[in-house]
Design goal:
The chain has two helices and five strands. The protein has about 120 residues and is an alpha+beta fold. The structure holds adenosine monophosphate (AMP). The site of adenosine monophosphate has 11 residues, from loops.
Length: about 120
């Protein structure tokens, strides 16, 4: 667990509606959505940034991607969504507890890397 807003959501200190939960992760709606579907997939383990993950986390990282696909499908955007991980403040990371952004339900510019 981490002492971030996501750690507090996972521990229940901050109430939040879980779109998905299993023993390894949760999925919640982003409070400031950038698209009609903007879900965060968050591991229960408080890894600060993607680069802080270790070989031990390999299965967990794969699991997060599988859950991202499942949640995207559940939210109706399984055919077209973007998966984003911001790593580090310089890349726009604001919450230092690893999370995957699942973004869908809007047009994406072809070849565009951001958002
Ligand atoms: P990042 O910039 O990649 O660290 O993403 C952090 C995301 O967390 C942002 O998109 C925020 O809008 C979102 N966020 C911050 N606090 C909450 C919260 N309490 N519930 C849901 N999403 C949140």
């Amino acid at each position: 667990m981490s002492d971030t807003v996501f750690g507090k959501i996972i521990s229940g200190d901050i109430p939040s509606e879980f779109l998905y939960e299993d023993e390894h992760c949760i999925a919640i709606n982003d409070v400031n959505p950038q698209a009609p579907v903007h879900v965060l997939v968050i591991p229960k383990k408080g890894i600060p940034r993607l680069v802080d993950s270790q070989l031990d986390d390999q299965a967990l990282l794969g699991h997060l991607m599988l859950v991202a696909g499942k949640v995207a499908t559940q939210q109706g955007v399984g055919e077209a969504f973007r998966l984003i991980v911001n790593n580090g403040a310089g890349a726009g990371q604001t919450v230092f507890h690893l999370h995957l952004h699942v973004i869908g339900g809007r047009e994406f510019a072809e070849g565009r890397m951001a958002g």
